[in-house]
Model the fold of this input.
Amino acid sequence: MGLIDKLKELFKKEPEPEKAPEAPEKAARQRKTCKGCGKQFSYDPSWDFVPNYCKECKQKFVKEKEEKQRAGAPRKIKRKCRECGNYFTFDSTLARYPSYCPNCRKRHKEAQKAKYSRKKEG
Done:
């Protein structure tokens, strides 16, 4: 056996044993009936919870809650900021209820102005 034959044998690829087909990485979405309207909807079983209502019913509940808050005399509403987690208050007479506190809104507005400023830096 020559040197080349020894090298070929050394680096020869051995046939890999056939692997059994693996289960798909993504689990199939499961179906459930909405408790509100009876419509079938799908959800991901990897979620930490199993929803009882479809997306449309959840949106309807949010809209009804906001309408109840608007009813009656004007008052202050307290909410938790989505960004920083601090609580803030606002009037119930606003056309659209904010999800962010005034500080976070101001910071976001300044960041947008800096990003899309018409003034050239330099």
